[in-house]
């Protein structure tokens, strides 16, 4: 019996080790490639570490507007995610906790809005942004991105709010709390893991978005990080050193967020997905 338990643990740890290698190897290979010269990158015999360490890939990044692209992505992702969480929290609370006609239809409509392909919407959204003079600007992206993040965030928070017993809210209101005070003081603290998970997903979605940014923004200083990376590709020529270096820089903020909030991500996504 004990041997079976040991064998089971060995299988589990070996499987986890393989999964960890599969997850981390692409990051390692990007980091490895970013420090290689262009000639070594195109060598027919690949090496797992640079023969001669070079910073040319990162130097070429900093000669361009890439740091501005990083800043633009961070500003847009942060503002859109915060705005989406506030709007989605209010909408999700109303749909999950208030009794009114048509709330199920509204809930399904929100899901359908999230599932709608972006390729269907980018032309009318661009026409809207262009008509109000926000094309070629990160403000235009801040107007467009909530159409992606709010439906998903609302749907996730609806599921999460439904896991909070109504009796808790009713007891607070019997004790004299208004609905707004109950939401702020009781519901939101209980829903913090779900809101954290939803915020991180919204941030990641904005951070990695490409199609809308490509359509709306063409000015170098207004481009986001995904467009900055695509500028490393000219025709059929790939500047692999700068491209991999930029990909490493683009990965750092998201990795840091997930490392510090992983327990909220697991709790929020698990409980929110139950319903």
UniProtKB/TrEMBL annotation:
Residue stretches in coiled coil: none
Main location: membrane
UniProt keyword list: Cell membrane, Membrane, Transmembrane, Transmembrane helix, Transport
Listed GO biological process terms: transmembrane transport
Localization per Swiss-Prot or TrEMBL: Cell membrane
Residues that span the membrane, as ranges: 12-31, 74-95, 111-132, 138-161, 182-205, 237-260
Cellular-component GO terms for this entry: plasma membrane
Topology class, membrane: Multi-pass membrane protein
UniProt-listed CDD domains: TM_PBP2
Occurrences of domain ABC transmembrane type-1 (ranges): 70-261
Similarity comment: family membership: Belongs to the binding-protein-dependent transport system permease family.
Protein name, UniProt field: Carbohydrate ABC transporter permease
Native source organism of the sequence: Cohnella candidum
Organism classification: Bacteria, Bacillati, Bacillota, Bacilli, Bacillales
């Amino acid at each position: 019996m004990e041997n079976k338990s040991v064998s089971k643990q060995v299988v589990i740890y070996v499987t986890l080790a393989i999964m960890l290698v599969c997850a981390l190897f692409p990051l390692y290979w990007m980091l490895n490639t970013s420090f290689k010269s262009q000639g070594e990158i195109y060598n027919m015999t690949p090496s797992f570490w640079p023969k001669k360490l070079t910073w040319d890939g990162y130097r070429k990044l900093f000669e361009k507007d890439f740091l501005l692209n990083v800043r633009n992505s961070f500003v847009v992702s942060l503002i859109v995610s915060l705005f989406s969480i506030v709007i989605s929290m209010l909408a999700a609370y109303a749909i999950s906790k208030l009794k009114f006609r048509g709330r199920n239809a509204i809930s399904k409509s929100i899901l359908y809005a999230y599932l709608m392909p972006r390729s269907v919407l980018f032309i009318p959204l661009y026409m809207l942004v262009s008509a109000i003079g926000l094309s070629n600007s990160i403000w235009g992206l801040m107007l467009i991105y909530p159409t992606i993040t709010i439906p998903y965030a609302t749907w996730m928070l609806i599921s999460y709010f439904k896991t909070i017993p109504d009796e808790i809210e009713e007891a607070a209101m019997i004790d004299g709390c208004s609905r707004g005070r109950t939401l702020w003081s009781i519901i939101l603290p209980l829903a913090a893991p779900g809101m954290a998970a939803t915020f991180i997903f919204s941030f990641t979605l904005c951070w990695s978005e490409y199609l809308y940014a490509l359509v709306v923004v063409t000015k170098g200083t207004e481009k986001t990080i995904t467009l900055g990376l695509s500028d490393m590709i000219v025709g059929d020529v790939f500047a692999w050193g700068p491209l991999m270096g930029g990909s490493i820089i683009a990965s750092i903020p998201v990795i840091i967020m997930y490392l510090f909030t992983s327990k909220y991500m697991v709790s929020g996504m698990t409980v929110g997905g139950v319903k």
